[in-house]
Amino acid sequence: MRGDSSMPTVIPARCCARPIGGGGEPTVPGRMERMTLIDRPSARRSVDALTAIGFGVLASAPEPGLFMALLTGIAAIAIGLWSRGPRAGLGGLAVLVVVSMARATWLDGHWLYVAEELPPALMRAGVPWLIGLAVRQYIVLGRRADRERELRQVQRLAELKERATADRLALAQSLHDDLGHSLSLVALNLGRLEIDPALPESARTSLLHARNDLAHAVERLGDSVSDLRSGAPVLPMGAASVDALLARARAAGARITVQGLPEPRRLQDFGGEQVTRVLQEAITNASRHAPGTPIDITAADAGAELRLKIENALGETPADAHTAGTGLSTLESELRAHGGELAAEKTDSAFVLSAALPARRQEQSTHDDRAVEATRDVDESSTGRTKLRQRLILASTAAIVVVGLAAVEALTVVQNHRALLSAGAFSSISVGDARAETERILPGHELPARRGENRPDDCHDYAVTANTFDDAAGDVYRICFAQDEVSSTEYIAGGQR
Fold this sequence. Notes:
This protein is an alpha+beta fold. Helices cover 59% and strands 11% of the residues. It has 3 domains: 41-171 and 365-418, no CATH class; 255-315 and 325-363, Histidine kinase-like ATPase, C-terminal domain (Heat Shock Protein 90, 2-Layer Sandwich), CATH 3.30.565; 419-496, Beta-lactamase Inhibitory Protein, Chain:B, domain 1 (2-Layer Sandwich), CATH 3.30.1450. It has a 5-stranded mixed beta sheet. The longest helix is centred in the first third of the chain and has 83 residues, at 112-194. The termini are far apart.
């Protein structure tokens, strides 16, 4: 049995595997996941710091050429468009200031180089960064406004649905309590009359039909109440029930003639339930106000609309036939909501009800329509606020650019003004004049040498004009001394320095 190779080798399960190569704690996946989650913020901070340092060093290049200037602008715009661009951009500008001040102080040997180089460097790097930042904020605000508008529409739809639910439940309760009770009493009275032996057989038959119609109405009322309570759509009678409506009315004793009425499938194109509602309202009014008079129904299918004309002769209105008259007005409102028309006319001898029902297209939900109308004003105001914020961002960016340019211009003007030497004072200085006498004429400050400029020893440059828009802007008067005397005076154009 020991040498049987068919027996499987059983290896006991281990709780946790130790790392290969010796002791130590077992590797736990949960700990690695926690370490990964902890390292993500530090990794992001490292990326932000490296981006800021690289951006600052790139922007602090002294006297960059066209390629370096374009590269700096592209990098600044990209950082501004980045999601963490504000922090990285501000850090880069801080690095730019530190590097420029350190180079001007320790390498170039004069702090005035900071005033000469830092503003253009800030403009080259800061303006594109602000533009990228403004574009990103513009896009973010637009997307946020879209999301807020969609959220408001969803909330508005939810509110309308809640309101519709409350109205539906209230309507169901009212139908159940009021109308159901009234119909039940009517059915009870009809049943009591039906068994009265004094009534003729014809009257019993009419009462039987009336009680059947009432039972059908109560059954339909119960279904409608159940649908309203459950939230299911209340199904209309439908165009197919037009024949049933006419059959029940004729069975109840109404004399009805019909001409030109389309087939049930065609009636669906005009809203079959609306056709049934018009015919039902007309037959009900004629039976109530002129019982026993003929009812003539004429229909005309014009393709784009269906025209109905229901006419009945006037009769003596029973004393108990007076109603509130809201049936026709309600029906007219329903037809107008779907683009139709309803008109009632009473002549000397007849009552005429005319209706026009247009062919239906795919209809939008009533709640959705009301939600769109209700949120349209809110959306327009929100869009206006978003556009205002976007304009403020663009205007602020433009203002920062203008202020930066104005600051550079003002700094240049102040520097030139402090080192300004008038043309008359320059012409009064001659070679051989004593240094002490000449220094009384010269300004208290001079222009620093440009980077890379080979200025002779003991030579000093002074501004010809403080107006940067003057043709002589950048030109200098150079006064050189040797052995406490003026050794040379020279007018140097800006391009020759």
